[in-house]
Write a structure and sequence with these properties.
Largest sheet: 6 strands, antiparallel
Order of helices and strands: HEEEEEEEEEEEE
Number of helices: 1
Strand order of the largest sheet: 1-2-5-8-9-10
Structural class: mainly beta
Shape: globular
Helix content: 10-25%
Strand content: over 45%
Number of strands: 12
Radius of gyration: 19 Å
Distance between the termini: 64 Å
Length: 169
């Protein structure tokens, strides 16, 4: 009887743990752009009433001018099944970490050959394969960070009231 009680307690306990909400749940986007499959793996942080983009002095979660992992937890990765162009610049097929440097009027989109890193803490600029620029715009509130890819190759990063897009062909 004691064994059965211990087993039931463990099962109930593990079930409760499995049902708890993950603060930044994982997400995957897969889209065919022409003949190329684009796959993005990332984690979705939430606004939770915080200032997301802004200055360090404002205590923004993602300060302007600093490298951001473009999501939460591990660095976001982007994979291309064929060679592509991003914003008109060539990029070889492969898996890259997708990092960004948000700014008030311009964002730097970074493709770094170090795909496996926790956040951006081990980020090294010398491993950047490509950097392109993109313009942020205002859009409707998005509580969770979301990445979308259209069949035409528009990759969109949406969070809070900010949207940034770049193009893959």
């Amino acid at each position: 009887m004691k064994k059965l009680f211990v087993i039931l307690t463990c099962l109930v306990g593990f079930g409760a743990i499995a049902q708890t909400q993950v603060p930044s749940p994982p997400a995957v986007v897969v889209q065919k752009v022409g003949n190329t499959e684009v796959m993005i793996k990332y984690a979705q942080p939430a606004v939770k009433g915080r200032l997301v983009f802004g200055t360090k002095a404002q205590k923004a979660l993602v300060p302007f001018g600093e490298v951001w992992r473009t999501g939460a937890n591990e660095a976001t990765t982007i994979e291309f099944s064929n060679d592509v162009t991003v914003q008109g610049k060539k990029l070889a097929k492969g898996v890259y970490s997708l990092l960004t440097i948000p700014g008030e009027t311009d964002w730097t989109i970074i493709f770094n050959k170090e795909a496996k890193m926790w956040g951006h803490y081990t980020y090294k600029a010398e491993k950047d394969v490509l950097r392109v620029m993109a313009k942020p715009s205002e859009h409707k509130m998005s509580e969770r960070f979301t990445i979308g890819v259209s069949a035409t190759g528009q990759v969109t990063l949406d969070w809070d009231k900010t949207s940034v897009s770049f193009y893959v062909k």
